[in-house]
Write a structure and sequence with these properties.
The chain has about 600 residues and is an alpha+beta fold. It is about 50% helix and about 10% strand. It contains 25 helices and 19 strands. The strands form five sheets. The chain has a six-stranded mixed β-sheet with strand order 12-14-13-15-16-19, sandwiched between helices. Strands 1-2-3-4-5 form a five-stranded antiparallel β-sheet. A hairpin with a 2-residue loop joins strand 1 and strand 2. Helix 3 packs across helix 4, helix 16 runs antiparallel to helix 17 and helix 24 packs antiparallel against helix 25. The longest helix is centred in the N-terminal third of the chain and has 28 residues.
């Protein structure tokens, strides 16, 4: 193991899960557990449970669960070793020397150092005569020097291996440059700089580390905008450009845009609360990141079809979330020949000034109003057919709103627009809500009528081949966690008796802890199990298990598992023996009845 097990036991003991989770989630006691709004997905009704006794958490909504280490890995987007260091620092513990994961941590540190040195190299080039082309480009874009310095902008030269030569002289290997996404491999095996003849925009995370680069071509080269690929230190789903600066803003909200240079212009104009996603639609990971700094978002995507689609997707993701959401739509600009063209934030501020943008910001509409306007835009509302079609679509939209007051207010506005009575539209809204509820109920009924499917792990890779045996194996793990004194001194089963490799692994990890006199609990197993495996184990540990009848339950579970072992053995040896074993099981079931 990379970390000594006794160290992990002490680490989890010193980092009580209630104390740790309370730093991220407001918890309220409900019976033996505490509940709050899940930090890993958007919800209005608390479904996130924390068990002080078991030192585990579980969300009944998104199905994520585990111990303190898993929580920090998920909440802080850290690897297992980094989460260990995070919790050790929190508890004032010294981390012992690891074996395997020390290399991974050192590799991550090397890549971050490489990115930092690359950013400094690009920055220095911008200040020198060689960077004149990028300086001229910034002047044309009206980006002031102070702004360029604030964002750490740099220049890449129109040459093949300038960066690679500079970084290898500093001691970095070509393999590290490849891992960082700073060089590209030719088909014949050579390497060359990925970014050439471009304005360089370092991507800095909220900890201050340079994790990647964005760039803009200076000429007509394609692609116009180029970002770093995914690397061991960079995932575009988990980063927002400019958030390292926007988190310091005194404004109460955060503006979400599409382009990096839009963010630069907005910050320069005084809107230092603007951020942009890195070539991806808004993600849950980015929302969790944003939730640390604000509860109010303003969507300001381009006013073209792609921008409207991105806005709609973001609103669907934000529907029912803890965020207050508004949409700022930039008006189109009329050209000299009378054509209407779209404006992004950079265009708008240059054409109309910061004051005009501030006015638009104050009048931005909320997400529901935006979506209603999009629906209305599909229909002329002059003919009866158009008004009926509009009423049906807008009713389906309003039916998704959780609050009755919200539905009534927006239904009144929609009814006025369609020139029908509010009561008639409200009837249609409630009909849509009833249809949605019925669909959900039918889906739930189908799941409940299929107990085999219901008992399967949510993660397909953890599929149970033998559900009957696996459920008994789950029961053994619950009993072990509930009261390990129920078990004899020697294991009642062999590892090969378990139908599920995962459940067998967990049972014997817990058995090993018991044999060594360590705490029998799930949190210290975080290094042995994947997040998906830990979530699944945590999920079935939510089911009640009685200690008073534990002895009988233990015997029953072992009996079921051994019965299934005999079936597997018999089916593999002799069909006649398999039939005899099947007859024995039926006879036993009748006697139990």
């Amino acid at each position: 193991m990379p970390f000594p097990q006794d160290f992990l036991d002490e680490l989890t003991a010193r980092n009580d899960i209630v104390d740790v989770v309370s730093s991220y989630v407001q918890l309220r006691r409900k019976g033996a557990n505490l509940f709050g709004l899940c930090p890993f997905h958007s919800e209005h009704t608390p479904s996130f449970s924390v068990s002080p006794d078991k030192q585990i958490y579980y969300c009944f909504g998104c199905k994520k669960g585990g111990g303190t280490i898993n929580f920090i890995m998920e909440a802080e987007h850290l690897s297992f070793p980094d989460a260990i260091h995070f919790l050790a620092k929190r508890a004032g513990m010294e981390v012992p020397e690891e074996t395997g994961d020390r290399d991974a941590r050192q590799r991550r540190a090397r890549l971050l150092d490489l990115n930092r040195d690359a950013a400094r190299f690009y920055y220095q080039l911008l200040q020198q005569p060689e960077g004149r082309a990028v300086q001229d480009y910034l002047n044309r874009r009206q980006i002031r020097k102070a702004t360029a310095v604030n964002f750490g902008m740099g220049a890449s030269l129109d040459e093949w291996d300038v960066l690679m030569s500079a970084m290898t002289k500093k001691g970095y290997t070509k393999s590290e440059l490849l891992d960082a996404g700073l060089v590209v491999q030719k088909k014949k095996g050579g390497l060359y700089d990925k970014f050439r003849n471009r304005l360089m925009l370092p991507v800095i995370d909220t900890r201050g580390d340079v994790v990647a680069f964005g760039s803009r071509a200076l000429d007509q080269s394609e692609p116009k905008y180029m970002n770093s690929p995914e690397t061991p230190v960079y995932s575009k789903r988990r980063v927002l450009y400019g958030l390292n600066l926007a988190k310091k803003s005194k404004r109460p909200n955060i503006i979400l845009c599409e382009g990096n240079l839009d963010i630069v212009t907005l910050h320069q104009a005084g809107f230092d609360n603007a951020v942009a996603s890195m070539g991806t639609a808004l993600t849950q990971e980015q929302l969790r990141l944003l939730s640390r700094f604000t509860k109010e978002l303003i969507l300001c995507y381009d006013n073209d079809n792609a921008g409207k689609v991105a806005t709609e997707r973001a609103l669907q993701l934000l529907n029912g979330s803890e965020f207050s959401v508004k949409v700022l739509q930039l008006p189109q600009r009329k050209t000299e020949d009378g054509k209407l063209v779209k404006q992004d934030p950079d265009d708008f501020i240059k054409n109309h000034g910061p004051g005009a943008f501030e006015s638009l910001l104050g009048g931005s509409e909320n997400g529901v109003e935006f979506r209603m306007a999009q629906v209305a835009g599909k229909y002329g509302l002059e003919s009866d057919e158009a008004r009926v079609a509009y009423s049906r679509e807008v009713s389906a939209l309003l039916a998704t709103l959780p609050g009755a007051v919200e539905r009534e207010i927006y239904a009144a506005r929609a009814a006025d627009l369609a020139r029908i009575s509010k009561d008639a539209l409200m009837l249609e809204v409630e009909r849509c809500r009833k249809q949605q509820t019925n669909r959900e109920s039918r889906a739930e009924l189908r799941r409940s009528l299929n107990p085999t499917a219901q008992s399967q792990p949510q993660e397909r890779s953890l599929h149970y081949e033998n559900v009957r045996s696996a459920l008994a194996e789950e029961g053994l793990i619950r009993l072990m966690l509930l009261d390990d004194t129920l078990f004899p001194k020697e294991p009642p089963l062999a590892l090969e008796d378990f139908s599920s490799p995962l459940l067998g692994k967990v049972f014997f990890l817990l058995w090993q802890a018991r044999a060594e006199g360590r705490p029998v609990s799930l949190p210290p197993l975080a290094g042995e199990l994947s997040p998906e495996e830990m979530s699944h184990i945590t999920s079935f540990c939510q089911r009640l298990e009685s200690a008073s009848s534990g002895g009988q339950a233990l015997a029953d579970y072992i009996g079921v598992i051994k019965s299934e072992v005999r079936k597997r053995s018999a089916s593999g040896l002799d069909p006649l023996l398999a039939a005899i074993e099947k007859h024995k099981d039926k006879k036993g079931e009748k006697q139990n009845v």
